[in-house]
Amino acid sequence: MIAHLDAFDRHYPHLFVYLRERDEIKRGFRERVKLSPKQYERFWQQIVREGVKNGEFRPDLDVQVVSYGILGMLNWLYKWYRPQGRLSVREVAEQLTALAGVTVPAPKRNLTRRSGESMKISAFHLMPHRELPADFEKRYESVWVTPPWWELADARRVGQYYNWTLDELLYAAKCGFDGVCTNEHHQNAYGFMPNPNIMGSVLAKLTNDTNVAIVQMGATLPTSNPPIRVAEEYAMLDCLSGGRLVAGLPLGSPMDVNLCYGITPMEHRERYREAFALTLKAWQARELFAWNGRYYQLANVNLWPRPIQQPHPPVWVPGSGSISTFDFAVEHEVCYCFLSYSGAKAARSMMDKYWTVVTDKGREPNPYRAGFLQLVTVADTDAQAEDKYARHVEYFYHKCLHWPVQYLSPPGNQDYRSLVASVSNPLRRTEDLKQLRYRDFVEKGYVISGSPATVRDRLMEEVVKGLHVGNLMVLLQIGSMPHELTLENVELFARKVLPDLRDVWNDEGWVNHWWPERLRGAAARPPAAGVGASRA
Amino acid sequence: MRREQTISVWQKRVRMRVLSDGAGPAVVFFHGPWGLTWDPFLDELAQRFTVYAPEHPGTTPDAPDDIHHLDGLWDLVLCYDELLTALALEAPALVGHSFGGMMACELAAAYPRRARRLALIAPIGFWRDGEPIVNWMALNPAELPRHLFRDTDSDAAQRMFGPSEPPEAAAAARVRLMWAMGTTGKFIWPLPDKGLKKRIHRVTAPTRLIWGKDDRLVPPVYAEEFTTRIPGARVHMIDGAGHAPHLEQPDAVASAVREFLIA
Fold it and tell me: Helix crossing, A323-331 with A416-424: angle to 10°?
């Protein structure tokens, strides 16, 4: 039994796929699995028979019924077992063995949770098209806004992508990640979850027995009309998940909001800010109210349902380095998340500016005020990582980020101050990504890739400490990365990297006000004055 | 001698600089989405008229954020009405290019007695599914000259897009261009049809359309949208010009406009 569980621990991703989809695994593949299910069943009958014979099992057991029962119990593990979970493999085996009727003295176990406020590490997913043609970036002008669906995609196959995406995030949840992240984008092959809350509701339901946060990164206010739709859906998710929601409130990309959804670039930020204020008020107001806004007018705002988390779920505001968003994030006491594909090295000066704004505005440099998204691929060795992931990383940067540069800044989208700043001091990448290969991306830190030790050290130095980040998001399914390889990446990260990062901030005693309260570790010191969840 | 004044309208929240020159009957020129440049075309008109060229809200130097006080076309039309009052212009001739052509037409529709005559140079304001207008705001700025001008090396093109050296001047020109497109784009995003078809029947001023034969941005067929709706309106096509015929062929356009305005 322990051996069976050990196999789970070592080969979790593969067994996960196998057990979930074995009815669909075709005969050809099955031949490669050494032991057929029938043989394995006989193996277990043999064990039970011997156990009864030498007195370890009760004599009145029916060998066939009991062996099927045990096997069923073990195979059900894929539904709930997490490597790096609360109990070790051996401890789980002991529990199950006791249940199966074999007496093994249970050693004393230490079940206390770790103390201090742990860093939160979440698995991010874009849900990209994984099978774009090899010459995609030569044949088509853009991955966003204009790629022709009928030439490039197939609805049934895309259905498979959505299911893989959910399975990959659920798997991350089982493996020990603190949160799972989805996001909203439109009309593209780069990442197409037009409504992340549809994905989020599945994730919320299927993680209800866990301490995993549902991090929506998130629904875009300016594309939702009226924007209380987002407040409602988030409140639903919070209710559905028992108060595990992190409410990401992104501005939305110009491609999504201006080019696809027709919002005037100059109104984009203003609409966002009004919708943001409306959302926070709609969650918290004790009385029905009228909203007489510039862009939105609602005579009867009386949200049903309201979120479980009070006064409202933690709010994260993703940004891409715009200075006006720094001010906004700090003034509204939200967690600012830099979603960058250029890695920590490129983000350093930007995040330094953010921390300057934080201190200038009299806030403490609590690392949980910041989130960062990093692309990560892990294998047993650096060489294996290159072997396994190089083409998927290149696919991502060459195809998934293939859009005309001006799409990012239609006139009026930046306010005047930001426009002047960005024109006179361009921060946007000037590098031609198409010229870069895997090793360049790794060297420049766009992607952190390699053995668990390599990945751990770089994440720690460049991202976590370098940027002073308490809420880390990692993108583990990258571009064309297939399902099985993604599970491997998730599992290896969870087992070999994540545990070593988690406690980095514990000694400093910061409180993560930006994480659902019921999922936080023990607070090591009380919240500082003026720091807390924002109130409208 | 060119004059310059800045007029505050809209409860003094919107400052609009107005350049003017010449003597004679009043002509108000509404610039296009790429900002106002005083060019030979306006000099030509100033030979016979007093030309007033206001800057679209937000494009006046040192007042970029004034644009945020205007929420829609209705506000903008009222703003221009206030501006004409402030300039003591009862019923000037209105001349407009592209977005400015649309604004001149909107003003003439809202206040038919405000417009003595209407000369529209490649105006926008309509949409045909079969003849989509290129969204210049989604183009790479480097591609703009090719869409706007027949001859991208001409002085006219240089004037509109500003210098590429030194870097400070290029950056300033870039900011100016982007902000001009943003502040005008506020009233026409994502498609330039904002309901002029419902209002244009109110125009009573004699109207002339001027169009570059090689307009790659707003195809000349769009002239029909105006000529079929404004009684007596006629089109004057300009050879050797794209979307900015008054800049590429200033003499031809100026004489066509002058002739029409004097008639």
Answer: 130
Residue A479 contacts residue A399 (beta carbons within 8 Å) = yes
Q: Residue A238: exposed, middle, or buried by beta-carbon count in 10 A (0-12, 13-18, 19+)?
A: buried
Instruction: Map tokens 């390889």 to a residue.
Output: A485
Q: Tell me which residue in B71, B140, B182 faces A411 most closely, judged by beta carbons.
A: B182
Nearest to B19 by CA among B73, B67, B56: B56
> What is the residue type of B8?
S
- In this chain, the answer to whether the domains covering A2-100 and A120-393+445-519 adopt an identical fold is no
Answer whether A315's CB lies under 8 Å from A328's CB.
no
Q: Domain-by-domain residue ranges, chain B?
A: 3-262
Q: CATH number of the domain at A2-100, out of 3.90.940.10, 1.10.357.10, 1.10.443.10, 3.40.50.300?
A: 1.10.357.10
Binding-face residues of A in 383-412 toward B, CB within 8 A: 404-407, 409-412
Instruction: Note the pLDDT tens digit of each residue in A216-275.
Output: 999 999 999 999 999 999 999 999 999 999 999 999 999 999 999 999 999 999 999 999
Nearest to A411 among B68, B171, B185 (CB): B185
Q: Does B166 touch chain A (CB under 8 A)?
A: no
Count Cβ atoms within 10 A of the Cβ of residue B74 and give its class: 0-12 exposed, 13-18 middle, 19 or more buried: exposed
Model confidence pLDDT, tens digit, residues A296-333? 999 999 999 999 999 999 999 998 777 788 999 999 99
DSSP B202-229: G--S-EEEEEETT-SSS-GGGHHHHHTT
Give the pLDDT of residue A93.
Answer: 64
8 Å CB contact of B182 and A412: yes
CA dist list (Å): A492 to A11, A376, A453: 10, 11, 11
ipTM of the complex: 0.95
Question: Is B178 in the A-facing interface, judged by CB distances under 8 Å?
Answer: yes
* % of chain A with per-residue pLDDT over 70: 80
Token duo for residue A271: 């609409």
Q: Does B64 touch chain A (CB under 8 A)?
A: yes
Question: Which of A:194-223 have CB within 8 Å of B?
Answer: none
The shortest C-alpha distance from B54 to chain A (Å) reads 20
What is the bridge-based pairing of β-strands B14-21 and A120-124? unpaired
Distances (CA, A) of A320 to A252, A326, A484, B240: 10, 10, 31, 44
- Domain boundaries in chain A? 2-100, 120-393+445-519
Residue contacts between A and B (CB atoms, under 8 Å): 70
**Cβ-contact A463, A472 below 8 angstroms:** yes
> Is there a contact between A270 and B189 if contact means CB atoms under 8 Å apart?
no
pTM greater than the 0.90 cutoff: no
* DSSP letter assigned to residue A144: B
| Residue of chain B nearest A404, judged by CA positions | B140
Distance from CA of B119 to the nearest CA of A (A): 28
The span from the CA of B174 to the CA of B183, in Å, is 14
Looking at residue B38, its amino acid is: W
Q: Do B138 and A267 touch (CB under 8 A)?
A: no
Chain A contact for B186 (CB, 8 A cutoff)? yes
**Confidence category of residue A83, pLDDT binned at 50, 70, 90:** low
Fold topology of B3-262:
Rossmann fold (3.40.50)
Strand, helix or coil at A27? helix
Q: Report the residue from B137, B175, B180 with minimal CB separation from A423.
A: B175
Give yes or no for A413 touching B (CB within 8 A): yes
Model confidence over A397-431: pLDDT tens digits? 999 999 999 999 999 999 998 899 888 876 555 68
| Inter-chain residue contact A411 with B179, CB threshold 8 Å | yes
B173 inside 8 A of chain A by CB: no
| pLDDT tens-digit map of A22-79 | 555 454 445 555 566 677 777 777 777 776 666 666 667 777 777 777 777 767 777 7
